[in-house]
Design goal:
270 residues; alpha/beta; Aspartate Aminotransferase, domain 2; 2 domains; 7 strands; 39% helix; 14% strand; binds pyridoxal-5'-phosphate
Length: 270
């Protein structure tokens, strides 16, 4: 599948296995077996399959919100571990990690990682995670994911997580650039219809996936089959919507740049 263009992959993944059923999106079954909090709905499984395919990942897990996915990634850390975060990450991510640090569960350094030398200066013996978001929300600051991943190659105990919400897998695949985790708020472009709150984590790292699965199952973090169905349906048009978003955004950015009352425009596309 990975050799196909994005549009082909996204349309042909997470669909029913039987050829005769392939003409439509999988049906959604809302009834759940209450005994089985460990069991995923078919819609959840199919959505995970589709997200993994878009991120060129072995695995994907979905969560009831992007914030919940942030919490899940943080659960990979042990008490006493240290995390380095880009200082311009989404404020919710910053707040949650700060709470964990205030509770003395973990320690956190917020660093301007656009200067790559800063990264190694802040790495400690107990550093286990580096978290970046590029471009960042809402400041649009950018980091070279491949450059950060190359530095971290010297530190096999540290995993690199990238919040890929703003770029989406249509524009950027963090795992192909050397990251260990691509995290998403599906609430935004991925679903695209402003009618669902969901999040996702994609990874090809067996150990991280295993741990994420155990935490997810045992904390009962399951998604509604209807939400999964809606996001899966939305994903099928992600490539078309992103092209239009970029076209529109460029027009707005160019208009603002030419405006006499505007000092500076932050738009990565320019
Ligand atoms: C970059 C980024 N990551 C994570 C989140 C959190 O996602 P959610 O709103 O789905 O909880 C947001 C929300 O605005 C975001 O912009």
């Amino acid at each position: 599948m990975a050799a196909f263009e994005f549009g082909t992959r996204v349309v042909h993944s997470g669909i029913p296995e039987k050829w005769e059923e392939r003409v439509r999106i999988p049906t959604v079954e809302l009834s759940r077996d209450e005994e089985k909090v460990f069991k995923k709905s078919d819609a959840e499984e199919k959505l995970q399959e589709c997200i993994a395919s878009t991120e060129a990942a072995k695995y994907a897990l979905v969560y009831p919100s992007g914030t919940c996915a942030v919490v899940a990634v943080t659960e990979l850390l042990q008490a006493g571990d240290h995390a380095i975060l880009f200082d311009s990450v989404y404020h919710g991510t910053r707040t949650y990690l700060s709470i964990c640090s205030d509770l003395e569960r973990i320690s956190v350094s917020f660093v301007d990682l656009r200067d790559h030398h800063q990264l190694e200066k802040h790495i400690r013996d107990n550093t286990k995670m580096v978290w970046i978001e590029t471009p960042s929300n809402p400041t649009m600051k950018m980091i070279d994911i491949a450059a950060v991943a190359a530095i971290l190659k010297k530190y096999p105990d540290i995993f690199l997580a990238v919040d890929n919400t703003f770029m989406t897998p249509y524009c950027q695949n963090p795992l192909l650039l050397g990251a260990d985790i691509a995290m998403h708020s599906l609430t935004k472009y991925m679903n695209g219809h402003t009618d669902v709150l969901m999040g996702a984590i994609a990874t090809s790292n067996d150990k991280l996936y295993e741990k994420l699965q155990v935490v997810q199952a045992n904390t009962g973090i399951r998604c509604s089959p209807l939400d999964c169905y809606l996001v899966l349906r939305g994903l099928k048009t992600l490539h078309l919507r992103m092209e239009r978003h970029m076209e529109n955004a460029m027009k707005v950015a160019q208009y603002l740049e030419a405006h006499s009352n505007v000092e500076k425009v932050f738009y990565p596309g320019m």
